[in-house]
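Fold it.
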Amino acid sequence: MNSLLSCALELQHAAHELMYLGMDGEPIYSDTFCRLNKEVLVKSNSLFSSKSSDIEEEANLCLALLMGYNATIYDYGDKEQKKQSVLDRAYTILEQLPTSLLKVRLLTYCYGEIYEEALLQEARVIIGQWDKNALTSEQTEIMEELKNIEENQYPFEVLD
């Protein structure tokens, strides 16, 4: 595995850990929470300007960046612009990316940013092709993640 892909996968792992911190019933310690937030933001910012000519590597990079910027609470005023830039990159490669778990993951995280129905429908079509009796843990997890995003569109809720 090359270093850009390994860095992207490392960021995905760290962002996932941060997003699900405490979900296992273990207590959340402030020093761990702060350390993970800083680690994820530093990794995200260090990978932001990286690009790959390999479509799957670029997809993993875009996924890692979206996960990273979503997971961290820190923002130095440019996080939204960076997320928009990553979304623009992701849109370019989604059309070329073959049907796969990676594509569903990228569609899910893009949908979680902009709630565009076409992204949701494409992810559902791919998921619909999976053998429901032989799902991997990664497939099950992304299906739950997509359902959670669909059901909790909090940035777009209208509050009375």
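The chain has a mean pLDDT of 92.
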